[in-house]
Amino acid sequence: MYLFMGSDKYNLELSDFCIICTISLQGRAEKSGAGGTMLEEETDPTYENVLAEIQSFELPIEATLRSVYDDQPNAHKKFMEKLEACIRNHDKEIEKMCNFHHQGFVDAITELLKVRTDAEKLKVQVTDTNRRFQDAGKEVIVHTEDIIRCRIQQRNITTVVEKLQLCLPVLEMYSKLKEQMSAKRYYSALKTMEQLENVYFPWVSQYRFCQLMIENLPKLREDIKEISMSDLKDFLESIRKHSDKIGETAMKQAQHQKTFNVSLQKKNKMKFGKNMYIKHDRIPEEKSEIVLKHSLKEEDENEEEVLTVQDLVDFSPVYRCLHIYSVLGDEETFENYYRKQRKKQARLVLQPQSNMHETVDGYRRYFTQIVGFFVVEDHILHVTQGLVTRAYTDELWNMALSKIIAVLRAHSSYCTDPDLVLELKNLIVIFADTLQGYGFPVNRLFDLLFEIRDQYNETLLKKWAGVFRDIFEEDNYSPIPIVNEEEYKIVISKFPFQDPDLEKQSFPKKFPMSQSVPHIYIQVKEFIYASLKFSESLHRSSTEIDDMLRKSTNLLLTRTLSSCLLNLIRKPHIGLTELVQIIINTTHLEQACKYLEDFITNITNISQETVHTTRLYGLSTFKDARHAAEGEIYTKLNQKIDEFVQLADYDWTMSEPDGRASGYLMDLINFLRSIFQVFTHLPTHNNDHAAMSGKVAQTACMSACQHLSTSLMQMLLDSELKQISMGAVQQFNLDVIQCELFASSEPVPGFQGDTLQLAFIDLRQLLDLFMVWDWSTYLADYGQPASKYLRVNPNTALTLLENRIYRGMKDTSKKNNIFAQFRKNDRDKQKLIETVVKQLRSLVNGMSQHT
Fold first, then answer.
1. What gap in Å lies between CA 248 and CA 231, rounded to an integer?
2. What pLDDT is stored for residue 147 in this prediction?
3. Closest by alpha carbon to 775, among 749, 808, 800, 747?
């Protein structure tokens, strides 16, 4: 029960409360008395323990109650009875305690009722006093509120002034930031932003306008980044467009510097020279020095007109952008973007035009763009910190260098003009020298030049092959005629010819060689000059240049000139006289090789006695050409002989000879005589010419006689020839006699004894055997070194006897056969021939078995 004194809701009197408490205590006492009797009557130790556990609150009550209900049936009834007895026992104890304190409680209530009257009086007095105080304090409260209001306003004004003093610098700095943004002073604007963020904004960070400013700064930074990036893109586009101009300027500067250095070196070398001249009363001065001064003056004038890379390109956008990104702390992003874009531009620059190889301007434009690109990168490397590093430029250059070499190697392979290749070489040298001046390694470019040098030599060889062909086509292949001393000196100035005998002769006279010899000599020297042009400025020693010149000259002699000579020799319209003149020409060209070696030595100042000096292979070249010409002479002679032999028209069944040699053979012999007469009447102003022409004439004569003998023998043994009469044999013998007479008449001097007649010995012995019919001697002496018919082959004799003559003997229908008389007389002679045939077969079989 709850009692709220003085409450309107429970407005109970104090006396009523006392009565209720007394009645309640009495009722509980009665109940506890009755329960106590029952508790005393029933006691069970089992339930006593259960009640003790419930009162202790130490064990869970659920387990205790479960033990009561699970113990035995109807146990809970006994437990309830026991519990009621326990409750009665406690009520009894409570009643005793209440009875003990009841009198004191009643006394306290009585005193409380007495105080009630005084409390009412006090309440009235307090209420009156409070009213009077309220009436007196109203005016004070009004004045106090006015004072408080003024104090608050004063404090607010002071606070506003203080805060404005804090905000004014912030607003001024922000206004300054806006002005800088409008003036495009972005780097200063970023610095102002840093000051705002680090110094000013912390003072006023609690204000809304400051938050708006703070929120606006990132946007301003992004705007600055975008604007600066746009400027950078414009800069990249600008340098891409001006790369060729920048490269052209850098290459001109490098070329001027190189020319100046070369001129200075020449001045130092010529300082102590003797090439002096005096004009009127002028002080003696070297010609080279005067030329040098003039050239240096021109170089100075040119250098004043040459622009630098800073004059051509405004680098401020890249500096500004770099500073902006550095301030923004995003320098790495800027560096990555710049390098990525420049790599893209590098790939575009390194991509050549498809027709670049057609003109030198295409190559020049390609090189100037690359030089311009790397000059800009080198400038950026040296004026910025970290944007471009040496490692990055080296990596970019190595990538570019590989691409450049591949492009040049591919496009130069299409060049067929040596002048274009030479200009390409000069461009590559200037290109390499320019980039080397900026610190880029260019050794691989000079290695490439060696590959291009080989190609240059190939184009030179092709060009000179055409030159040689034109010289050969324009030559008349006859000795050079000269009618006066002036013409003689002109020829001597072109070709190093020395012959004391020719000099002693009076005019008019002839050089032994034809016009092609001095022309070829001059063109070989021109080739050496052309090859030397490529070797200049390659930073190679004189020994290497000498070796290159000698190797290229060897290629010219051994491949180009040799091929042209061989093609000339094999041309159908070249006759025997022309071939003889070609042999003489090659002899003089061979002798001129030593002068070509001296010519190269004078150019390179490398002595021929040097161990590693390459020798010219002209000797073997001209010897091979001479041998080819000699072989062609022999071939053409044989072909001419075959043409005459094909005109032969023998009547193999004639009974009597005509009494004179065949017309075709006499024409052939006359032709051979005229040819060999030409050989013997060639100019022989020295022993070498005489020996050469005599040797060629002797070899040609012997070859012609042997070929004629072979052709006549093949005519007798022709498979289409079925029979031969004795008259035909005698007519054939008359032709062979003419051949022997020709051989014995010494058509070419120099043969010993009957050497030339031995070419017809096989025919002579074979015809003698058949005409004399000396088979017994032939068969008896066969195989003996002193045999009269030693050169008669049994197989040849058997073929002629069996298939040609013996077959005609068997043909009774032919009355003109030389063996008709044997058939009319007796058969013994037939048996003799059959015996000879058998013996010849035996010899042939024996030869085959022996073989």
1. 25
2. 92
3. 800
Peptide bond preceding 508 in cis form (omega within 30 of 0) = yes
pLDDT interval class at 774 (50, 70, 90): confident
Q: Specify which residues 285 forms β-bridges with.
A: 277
Of 445, 602, 455, nearest to 534 by C-alpha is 455
Query: Residue 388 in 3-state DSSP?
Result: coil
pLDDT at residue number 276: 32
Q: Collapsing DSSP states into helix, strand and coil, what is residue 285?
A: strand
The interaxial angle of helices 418-437 and 390-412, nearest 10 deg, is: 180
3-class DSSP state for residue 480?
A: strand
Q: Nearest Cα to 744, choosing from 818, 667, 669?
A: 669
Q: Show the tokens assigned to 616.
A: 């010219």
Amino acid at 246: I
What is the rounded average pLDDT of the residues 75-103? 84
Q: Mean pLDDT across the chain, nearest whole number?
A: 78
The pLDDT value given to residue 464: 92
| Burial class, 671, CB count within 10 angstroms (exposed 0-12 / middle 13-18 / buried 19+) | middle
Beta strands in 210-298 (DSSP E): 276-277, 285-286
Place of tokens 């005998």: 501
Q: For residue 755, give the DSSP letter.
A: T
Token reading at 725: 């009469």
Closest Cα to residue 533, out of 425, 401, 651?
Answer: 425
Mean pLDDT of 326-349: 85
**For the chain, how big is the Rg over CA atoms in Å?**
68
| Nearest to 373, CA basis, from 351, 340, 350 | 350
Beta carbons within 10 angstroms of residue 74's beta carbon: 7
CB 322 within 8 A of CB 331: yes
